[in-house]
Design a protein that fits this description.
Elements lengths: L1 H13 L5 E14 L6 E5 L2 E7 L4 E14 L2 E20 L6 E21 L2 E12 L13 E5 L2 E13 L3 E10 L4 E6 L4 E3 L5 E10 L1
Antiparallel strand pairs: 1-4, 1-13, 2-3, 3-5, 4-5, 5-6, 6-7, 7-9, 8-11, 9-10, 10-13, 11-12
Length: 213
């Protein structure tokens, strides 16, 4: 905790050293691929369900604001974004595994990436840590029962890295890869106290466009 406070204080103390400060707004889309190593068998009452993540990429969106502190070809860019994504899972009764239904879970969150970058003419290279705060409670995978509870991490951490370009110093375009260092959905637990561990560790590609003031 003390180290985190020192890092934040050092960051704000260093801000006056930057020679240029710009504010901006941005929005974009994302494609998410949820990693789940194998099919999970979940027991609800006397029924067993087979749950598996759909590996195809799902789309989401993000929008928010950023501030860029620049000096000598380098910059720091904190961002505050609202982001939404939807994951899809197949759910089937273990007795009839070929009769699958698709369940969707929507995640709304606040993202706080802090990008460190270098400018090479109009092109920018950047990378940095990203904190994510979950602000909604996604529905359970199996919605026709009331004895399964999905548990989520409210705050998780990851990273972003990518490339960007500024057009006439007013329009900014960015393409990034986002990785997860922690799980969003840690497990599902039934009323009997039996837990089923999941590995909901989504990775995404982010494409955004913004305007610089």
């Amino acid at each position: 905790m003390k180290k985190s406070i020192l890092i934040v204080l050092s960051f704000f103390l260093a801000l006056p050293a930057f020679t240029q400060v710009n504010f901006g707004l941005k929005a974009g889309v994302s494609t998410t691929n949820v990693k789940m190593e194998d099919v999970k068998t979940l027991t609800s009452g006397e029924t067993e369900y087979l749950v598996n993540a759909i590996k195809a990429a799902n789309y989401g969106f993000h929008a928010g604001a950023f501030v860029r502190f620049s000096m000598l070809g380098f910059y720091i860019q904190p961002e505050l974004l609202f982001a939404s994504r939807t994951d899809e899972y197949t759910v089937a009764d273990a007795e009839t595994p070929t009769e699958e239904t698709i369940k969707k879970q929507q995640f709304n969150r606040l993202d706080l990436p802090i990008m460190l970058g270098a400018k090479l003419g109009p092109v920018r290279l950047n990378a940095g840590p990203a904190a994510r705060l979950l602000i909604n409670s996604p529905k359970d995978l199996i919605t026709d029962t009331d004895d399964l509870k999905a548990m989520y991490n409210d705050l998780t951490f990851g990273y972003q890295a990518g490339i960007g370009v500024d057009i006439v110093k007013k329009i900014t375009l960015d393409l990034r890869y986002e990785g997860s260092l922690q799980k969003y959905q840690t497990k599902i637990e039934n009323t009997a106290g039996t837990s089923f561990t999941l590995d909901d560790r989504p990775n995404a590609f982010l494409l955004s466009v913004g305007i610089i003031f």
